């Protein structure tokens, strides 16, 4: 939702002045002649099948000024890659987020100081030396060797959820599994006590609602502030415990992280926990639903998961590429500069279309087909460069373990032909996904499985 709010906000003179953008900087006309190429991120067509239009943009106007979005749109793989690494495309977006929140509620940072404080401290909103320092400290906790230590936790947690699925048989996959499994996994790797699961889930949901952007109601902001206070207190206690007695969990890794004499201070540790919760819950939740539907529509992929589980990592990488999860990320121009034959002005919003980059015909053969044998190279599924998702190994491990175990244990059917998509420009995901999980049982003496009816 927040992306639709950005385009309204950047047209508001008072908002642009508050964020230091300058009203005069945004007066312009479209640099390409045809409105046919423009795009509405929240249109039904774009939400359902964005790729043909994005491929057309990449071919005809790869650096495109959108009157609808009031922003630049980059669609070629090469340009999206550059925008991730070129310092002229800045990740400093906290002022924009606060500006959007304040449109609905005046003095938002004074009224909700704890939530807004930790929203501003999200290191994804940092650039340059500041971002590099915190990332260098955090990345040690997300190394392949550390993430592997959590695989058994993931397997046990997934089996618990699959046991619930077996007991229920028919249910909404989004509500029973997709929304709760990733949040529960974050809870475990950070060492939050299992008895706090429901409160932790509610707090995570309240945080994600506001951090997704856009104007919010007073009730939503009050829930956000309450959630931030609860999480601050919860994580503060855990940080103190890990400082005294490290346990080997992810939070212990963050507490112990060092870069020469540097370390994360208390607020930075808290902000890191908030970031892990926000990014680690919502994104994986949506991808569980997206991936499940695609696999259910392809019997060959189901057979692959059952007969060649070692091929699962490559399949997950391909599903992350197409249909994928994250459609776009955005940046703010740090200065006036020319790019791709267009003049980009300071504080212009620039959308990096990851969904377009991942189906670029110059990079991928038959990009609109799911090929489980495809050798993925430089996918933009998790971003690129210094802002490449720090938790990508954890997310992929969860997805790999879930899809392998779910399809080995069950015949899974989606009960709705076209489940409704969430109305979010950034993420592909489903509002609901009615499913039926039918347990598979071994066929005597064959080592094979068949479905169990009844």
UniProtKB/TrEMBL annotation:
The lineage of its organism: Bacteria, Pseudomonadati, Pseudomonadota, Alphaproteobacteria, Sphingomonadales. This is Cytochrome P450. It comes from the Bacteria. The keyword Oxidoreductase applies. Belongs to the cytochrome P450 family. It comes from Novosphingobium colocasiae. Keywords: Heme, Iron, Metal-binding, Monooxygenase, Oxidoreductase. Transmembrane segments: none annotated. GO terms for molecular function: heme binding; iron ion binding; monooxygenase activity; oxidoreductase activity, acting on paired donors, with incorporation or reduction of molecular oxygen. Cytochromes P450 are a group of heme-thiolate monooxygenases. They oxidize a variety of structurally unrelated compounds, including steroids, fatty acids, and xenobiotics.
């Amino acid at each position: 939702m927040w992306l639709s709010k950005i385009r309204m906000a950047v047209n508001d003179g008072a908002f642009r002045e508050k964020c230091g953008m300058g009203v005069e900087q945004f007066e312009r006309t479209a640099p390409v002649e045809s409105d046919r190429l423009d795009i509405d991120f929240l249109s039904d067509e774009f939400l359902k099948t964005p790729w043909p239009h994005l491929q057309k943009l990449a071919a005809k106007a790869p650096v495109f000024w959108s009157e609808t979005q009031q922003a630049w749109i980059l669609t070629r793989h090469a340009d999206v890659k550059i925008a991730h690494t070129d310092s002229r495309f800045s990740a400093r977006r906290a002022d924009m987020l606060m500006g959007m929140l304040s449109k609905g509620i005046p003095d938002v940072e004074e009224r909700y100081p704890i939530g807004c404080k930790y929203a501003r401290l999200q290191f994804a909103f940092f650039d340059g030396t500041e971002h590099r320092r915190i990332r260098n400290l955090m990345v040690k906790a997300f190394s392949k060797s550390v993430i592997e230590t959590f695989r058994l936790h993931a397997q046990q947690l997934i089996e618990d959820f699959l046991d619930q699925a077996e007991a229920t048989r028919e249910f909404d996959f989004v509500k029973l599994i997709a929304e709760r499994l990733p949040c529960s996994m974050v809870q475990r790797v950070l060492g939050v006590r299992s008895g706090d699961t429901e409160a932790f889930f509610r707090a995570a949901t309240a945080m994600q609602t506001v951090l997704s952007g856009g104007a919010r109601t007073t009730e939503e902001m009050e829930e956000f502030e309450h959630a931030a206070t609860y999480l601050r207190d919860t994580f503060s206690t855990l940080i103190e415990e890990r400082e005294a007695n490290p346990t080997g969990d992810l939070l212990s890794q963050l507490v112990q992280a060092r870069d020469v004499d540097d370390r994360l201070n208390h607020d930075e540790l808290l902000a890191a926990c908030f970031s892990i919760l926000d990014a680690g819950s919502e994104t994986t939740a949506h991808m569980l639903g997206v991936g499940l539907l695609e696999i259910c529509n392809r019997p060959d992929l189901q057979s692959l998961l059952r007969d060649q589980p070692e091929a699962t990592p490559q399949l997950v990488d391909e599903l992350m590429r197409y249909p994928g999860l994250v459609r776009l990320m955005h940046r703010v121009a740090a200065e006036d500069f020319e790019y791709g034959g267009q003049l980009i002005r300071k504080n212009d919003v620039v959308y990096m279309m990851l969904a377009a980059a991942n189906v670029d015909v110059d990079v991928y053969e038959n990009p609109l087909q799911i090929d489980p044998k495809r050798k993925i190279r430089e996918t933009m599924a998790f971003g690129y460069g210094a802002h490449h998702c720090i938790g990508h190994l954890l997310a992929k491990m969860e997805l790999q373990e879930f899809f392998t175990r779910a399809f080995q244990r069950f015949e899974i059917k989606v009960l709705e032909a076209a489940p409704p998509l969430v109305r979010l420009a950034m993420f592909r995901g489903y509002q609901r996904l009615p499913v039926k999980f039918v347990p598979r049982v071994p066929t005597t003496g064959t080592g094979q499985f068949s479905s169990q009816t009844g």
